[in-house]
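Researcher: Sequence of Sugar ABC transporter substrate-binding protein follows. Predict its structure.
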Amino acid sequence: MEFKTFVKIKTIILLTVLTFLNGCSSNTLPPATLHQSDTVDVASYKYLIGAGDVLNIFVWRNPEVSGTFVVRPDGMITTSLVEDIPVSGKTPTELARAIEEILSTYLRDPVVTVTVNDFVGPINEQIRVIGEAGQPQSINYVQNMTLLDVMIQVGGLTEFADGNDAVLVRIENGEQKQYNIFIENLIKNGDISANVDVLPGDIIVIPETWF
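Model: Prediction complete. Tokens:
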């Protein structure tokens, strides 16, 4: 095969591949599913079990079915009697009652207690901080947590942050709402009036300053 013919064929193949890739890149993914937290205000907060949590399940008078279990990424655990028990999104008390109902098939009047170690919680209950934070990350919500508590955990603002143009995104009644927050006033100027309550599932976006 002549060199010119080879180059021509190679060019045609390359253009075909690029055309295909360009066609693929024009497709867009649907937006992420909105997951609203069950916590609508500070007073209503209850800890919910999530993937990665370590559960201690104690069945009274039945040590053989008691034990410590890690919640799998699919939100389930497997016990010695029952496989694939869904646990994610339940409070420890709700899970205890659910396990009692399941075990009642095998045991007479089971009494179950559930405690949690190594708290992680469902991902939609975590607070996510992105942008010009010292250490952008997802953090576990703690009852009565405020914006100041969050900023301490993520290492404050970077030198390039526009903290007073930051926003807090929250899902309310199935809709995404956005609130202005003034982080620079809070942590650099000591303006405590800029400290606000945060809730599970909040997303804090900190933009970069333009100058």
